[in-house]
Amino acid sequence: MARAVSPQLESGLSTQAGATRWDVVVVGAGVAGGLAALDCARRGLRVLLVEKRSFPRWKVCGCCFNNQAQAVLAAVGQQELIADRGGLPLHRLRLGLNGVEATVGLPGGQVLSRERFDQALAEAAAAAGASVRFQTSAAIEASERGWRTVRLTPSNGRAASRVQARVVLIAAGLVHHVVPDQEGCQPWVAPRSRVGAGCVLRARTAGYEPGTIHMAIGSGGYVGLVRREDGELNLAAALDRSAVAEAGGAAGAVRAVLHQAGFAALQGIDSARWQLTPPLTRRNGRLAGDRFLVLGDAAGYVEPFTGEGMAWALTAGAAAAPFVLEGLQHWSPDLERRWQQRMRRSLIRRQRMCRSLAWLLRRPAPTSAVFALVRRWPHIPERIVSGLNRVSLPPMGPTSCP
User: Fold this and answer.
1) Residue 215 bridge partners (DSSP)
2) pTM of this prediction?
3) pLDDT given at position 180
């Protein structure tokens, strides 16, 4: 079971909770926002972290952490966070296509449910001095004399309030309405983008042992499954929208992919609580504006593999604090330009391989040919996995507030 929310997090109060001016307001307490809030708070900044949902909460995600993700956590002093919350090691990647299987080594990976991980990150940010408010939506408004106004709207029906921030970090997920439309942050969405679908299965289906990412590949998409620390089976899929419609829902589309791959049928799949995401593959043309920076999934996304999605978000979160520190002293168009470049360099290049794999998996003949090579020469996929696991930390900058 996930840990209960601490009183500080549940109430959204801290010693700074009555403040109306902050160094930085972080919108979104997921992976990127939680890490950015933690890093800014540990550098002595006044941080308000705002999240529209309550914690703990599950979301569509593979909940796997590769070497890059773990290295970023270590860089901000959280190297034990996953283990302390019960995370389990991952050793293998099991692939299935057309009834044929291949297994690839997966060194150094870990798995931890998003319920536990995101809550742990928010608690760490609060322990570092951040104020955290759940069930609160945020939208940025006017900019005036070095401050950006942020409207905060509680979900309990109470009246909205306003605070001011020197910098706003927007990590509000794939779809958000934090930035006014006239500031040009609407994303471009790939016309054939797949949607994410997921659930947690409590039934003990045989054939899905722990320590392994099970990846089934079919004509309508692919399905990833992994045993969590509580023994439940986490399912996260990327599916063609047409496949979901033709199968009468996500459960039917996933069942078809598993059958094509030769994987065991899943118990409880029809009665599970499914979540669907908006189209996954998207790109935001503008990642910065007047006193705000966009990061995490809000900055752009492609279909991920073997924990890369978590690594992208954590890497973006770790890159933010040096830009925040600079922006507190002097905000400039050059800072905005350099943030955009930083995101392009540190994330979009890492997404390139996943984009190529997603392109390949849409084409049956090339996919079958590559899969045959994988079975014959296992070092080929191992090199690909090694490339996805390559560690590249963003510059972390100074460690104290100037």
Assistant:
1) 95, 224
2) 0.87
3) 87
